[in-house]
């Protein structure tokens, strides 16, 4: 059985649908908390995440190819192109 699922908010209700933030703000003004996270849920999430963040803080920083904003990026991208058989001159947008 095939079901045609075609819904138009404007055709059904005569106006464009509300923007997501409008719905969220209206729900909060009405006291409808179904789209919000409860305080005990947030606390439980932090009890899970905090030990992970603390463990990561104890690790050495990875050798990540950082680069300055506005630059051509890390030089490792040129090495990657060479490995793949392409030179930097064939990179999209290179030299523009």
Question: In a few lines, what is going on in this structure?
Answer:
This protein is mainly α and 96 residues long. It has helices at 9-13, 20-30, 39-58, 76-83. The chain folds into two domains: 1-59, no CATH class; 64-96, no CATH class.
Provide the fold topology.
Blueprint: H1 9-13, H2 20-30, H3 39-58, H4 76-83
Explain what you see.
- Helix content is 46%, strand content 0%.
- The chain has 96 residues and is mainly alpha-helical.
- It has helices at residues 9-13, 20-30, 39-58, 76-83.
- The protein has two domains: 1-59, no CATH class; 64-96, no CATH class.
Question: Which descriptors would you attach to this protein?
Answer:
96 residues, mainly alpha, 2 domains, flat
Number of helices: 4
Task: Tell me what portion of residues adopts beta-strand conformation.
Answer: under 5%
H/E series: HHHH
Largest sheet descriptor: none
Point out poorly predicted stretches: none
Question: Which structural class do the helices and strands define?
Answer: mainly alpha
DSSP E strands, number: 0
Calculate the mean pLDDT score and round it: 82
Domain count: 2
Percent range of helical residues? 40-55%
In whole angstroms, the N-to-C terminal distance is: 54 Å
Shape: flat
**Any idea what the radius of gyration is?**
25 Å
């Amino acid at each position: 059985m095939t079901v045609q699922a075609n819904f138009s908010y404007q055709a059904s209700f005569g106006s464009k649908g509300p923007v997501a933030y409008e719905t969220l703000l209206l729900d909060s003004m009405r006291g409808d908390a179904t789209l919000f996270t409860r305080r005990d849920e947030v606390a439980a999430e932090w009890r899970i995440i905090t030990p992970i963040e603390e463990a990561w803080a104890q690790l050495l920083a990875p050798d990540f190819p950082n680069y300055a904003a506005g630059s051509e990026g890390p030089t490792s991208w040129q090495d990657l192109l060479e490995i793949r058989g392409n030179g930097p001159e064939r990179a999209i947008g290179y030299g523009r």
